[in-house]
Amino acid sequence: MSDTSTFHHISVFAEEAVEALKPEPDHIYVDCTLGGAGHSGRILKASSPTGRLIAIDQDLIAIANAKQVLAPYEGRFTIVHSNFRRLADIVAEQGLSGVDGVLFDLGVSSPQLDEGERGFSYQHDAPLDMRMDKTQSFTARDLVNEWSAEEITKILYDYAEEKWSKRIAEFIVRERAKAPIETTGQLVDIIKAAIPAAARREGGHPAKRTFQGIRIAVNDELNVFAEAIQQAIDVLNPGGRVAIITFHSLEDRMAKLALQEAARGCICPPELPICQCTNTPRVKVITRKPIVPSEEELAHNPRARSAKLRIAEKL
Ligand SMILES: C[S@@+](CC[C@H](N)C(=O)[O-])C[C@H]1O[C@@H](n2cnc3c(N)ncnc32)[C@H](O)[C@@H]1O
Q1: Distance 201 CA to ligand 1 centre (A)
Q2: Ligand 1 site, residue 83, Cβ cutoff 6 A
Q3: What is the pLDDT of residues 177-216, one digit of tens each?
Q4: What's the ipTM?
Q5: Ligand 1 centroid vs 130 CA: distance in angstroms?
């Protein structure tokens, strides 16, 4: 998408996620997932007149649009084209020893999904791509044509809970032996052929889970998030908060466990009479249960359906 005027993404938990960070003037925030800048703009507004924002995105198209959206706050924000896997380094490169809030709004933006040519969508026929960062060389085409049946089965099962993962992987391997699989349309046809007709009629689109699994693998989303969440806790100043918006159960589970573990401190086995790990709690969990979207939010943004918000505060 080169025309930034058509970049349209409705922020999920637009108010709740920003309030969670308790924005204040003079404080410094990091939005790890700038996207359409909906949250970033709200953070800058709420921390006026002197709050500062570092906003990260690995997608240059999102960044081009966000620069226009954030123009009214010129001088108070820095946009960094990078993967948030580098969060700690990015904070250090800005000459900062800590920040007061970190936001993650995980996954892809609506424009990334809707722009057929990026290959994220099973609804548009396009080259198999799925890279959030177009400067990365590894694409969905490489994965589909080069990974073994076992590797493909594993990501479809682990990242998308696809119960037909083995059959889909076998069909992919069989088809690519005839000719390379180049497009999302070809992949959708292979998935449809692999899933028995009765099962195909259950739930949503038969290709939905496979596309999710491949996208997560192409962008290494879960490993990146696991690293970044620890860095987020590290870079927070005492009293600073991390807010995490997730869109599927694997991400939410990772967020929940990482925050719980950081809140627990001691990781010694329960049978040890005295703590030997000497770990101390690093955060207080603010959301024992995740915040879920209101009926009102769901009515105007169906994409929020599976969203969950978790918040923790640095001790
Ligand atoms: C759901 S959108 C964020 C929307 C944004 N919060 C808003 O209100 O407009 C997620 C964005 O994060 C970016 N992103 C996802 N994973 C990333 C990563 N590991 N590093 C940097 N950016 C990432 C995507 O490119 C996408 O633009």
Answers
A1: 32
A2: yes
A3: 999 999 999 999 999 999 998 888 777 899 999 999 999 9
A4: 0.99
A5: 14
Euclidean distance between CA atoms 105 and 32, whole angstroms: 8
242, two tokens: 């991390």
CB of 58 within 6 A of ligand 1: the answer is yes
Q: How is 226-265 classified by DSSP, letter by letter?
A: HHHHHHHHHHEEEEEEEEEEESSHHHHHHHHHHHHHHHH-
Ligand 1 contacts CB of residue 247 (under 6 A): no
> The tokens 């058509």 sit on which residue?
6
* Pocket lining: 118 vs ligand 1, CB cutoff 6 Å: no
The answer to whether 260 is annotated as binding is no
Residues 16, 248: Cα–Cα separation, whole Å: 19
Please name the helix (run of DSSP H) or strand (run of DSSP E) that holds residue 310, with its range, or none. strand 308-314
Q: Which domains does the chain have, with CATH numbers?
A: 4-111+221-314 (3.40.50.150), 137-218 (1.10.150.170)
